């Protein structure tokens, strides 16, 4: 499979601006997951999934355990499975096609298996999404931003479409955040949705300041400016008072820049989805890890684990090509052994 996309043109004209349908964006498309594999994974691994049924033209979530396709009939339903890249090696490898985006920006891969008449109900999401059509055909309809401001799975109907097109294998549809959309399948289909990271500034500030408090960082004591001005009205807060407050906060942010970097990379290294468990293994010593690596035993990364760094500071991850240069570095090997013993990296039994 190969992507046939002018990424510079895409980022300049469409990213977080306008939806766009890219026909045959992926050549020689091969489904990373089959419907049978998906069914088996959901049942055996009890993956987080939602069954969506279409009744009287409306899609509804069905709140009952998934026990396989056999009891669902031949029409009007879809199975939605989140973070499939955490549980299926080919799905994780599929994401490598999209590493033009920073790893911390891409969230997870959601897969939909739909039978004829099944699909995705009208919804508006607070994040950008790339829809890649696998097997079969489905019709996607995109409304204009603002016509459905609610961010959820509810029935956010929209009357007019700015895109109303059928997608076939290898087609890709980009939907920026805030654009309502829906889909319906005319046959058995697999659709893959790559979701992108988004967060709220207030929540991020709160989480960062909480991490500062946990580590007993001291703030800057604030007092009125030494350039305090006399004023006719003592009840008035002047613009320069607010500027002094902003300057104090900016000064604190600059002082804590390194902590902010560390916190952000640690946050982005996490995932809200459960990670699979590594194969059972004994606890290794540093010397045992060195010997295994020198003997050529491959080291495998846990699927779904994010690999991020700032400069030469690595967070929860290493890259395989580095090992030959650092295998005799005691600090690095100690950290690597710790990650292996926690199950983030493992030697294949």
UniProtKB/TrEMBL annotation:
Its cofactor is Fe(2+). The keyword Iron applies. GO terms for molecular function: 2-oxoglutarate-dependent dioxygenase activity; metal ion binding. It comes from the Bacteria. Residues 90-213 form the JmjC domain. PROSITE patterns: JMJC. Keywords: Iron, Metal-binding, Plasmid. This is JmjC domain-containing protein. It comes from Candidatus Williamhamiltonella defendens. The lineage of its organism: Bacteria, Pseudomonadati, Pseudomonadota, Gammaproteobacteria, Enterobacterales.
């Amino acid at each position: 499979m190969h992507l046939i996309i002018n990424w510079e043109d895409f980022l300049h004209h469409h990213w977080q601006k306008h939806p766009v349908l890219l026909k045959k964006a992926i050549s020689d498309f091969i489904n990373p997951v089959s419907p049978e594999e998906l069914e088996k994974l959901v049942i055996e691994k009890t993956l987080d999934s939602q069954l969506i049924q279409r009744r009287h033209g409306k899609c509804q979530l069905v709140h009952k355990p998934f026990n396989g396709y056999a009891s669902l009939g031949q029409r009007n339903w879809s199975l939605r499975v989140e973070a499939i890249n955490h549980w299926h090696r080919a799905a994780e490898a599929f994401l490598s096609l999209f590493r033009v985006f920073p790893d911390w920006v891409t969230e997870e891969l959601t897969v939909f298996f739909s039978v004829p008449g099944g699909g995705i109900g009208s919804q508006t999401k607070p994040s950008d999404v790339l829809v890649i059509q696998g097997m079969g055909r489905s019709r996607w309809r995109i409304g204009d931003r603002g016509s459905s401001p609610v961010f959820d799975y509810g029935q956010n109907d929209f009357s007019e479409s700015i895109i109303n097109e059928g997608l076939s294998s290898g087609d890709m549809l980009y939907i920026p955040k805030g654009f309502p959309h829906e889909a319906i399948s005319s046959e058995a289909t697999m659709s893959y949705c790559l979701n992108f990271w988004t967060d709220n500034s207030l929540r991020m500030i709160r989480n960062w300041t909480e991490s500062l408090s946990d580590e007993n960082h001291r703030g800057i004591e604030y007092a009125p400016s030494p350039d305090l001005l006399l004023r006719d009205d003592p009840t008035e807060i002047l613009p320069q008072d607010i500027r002094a407050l902003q300057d104090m906060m900016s000064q604190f942010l600059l002082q804590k820049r390194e902590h902010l970097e560390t916190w952000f990379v640690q946050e982005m290294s996490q995932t809200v989805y459960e990670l699979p468990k590594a194969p059972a293994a004994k606890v290794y010593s540093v010397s045992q890890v060195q010997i295994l690596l020198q003997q050529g035993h491959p080291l495998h990364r846990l699927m779904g684990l994010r690999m991020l760094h700032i400069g030469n500071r690595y967070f929860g991850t290493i890259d395989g090509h580095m090992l030959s240069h650092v295998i005799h570095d005691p600090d690095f090997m100690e950290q690597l052994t710790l990650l292996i013993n926690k199950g983030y990296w493992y030697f294949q039994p």
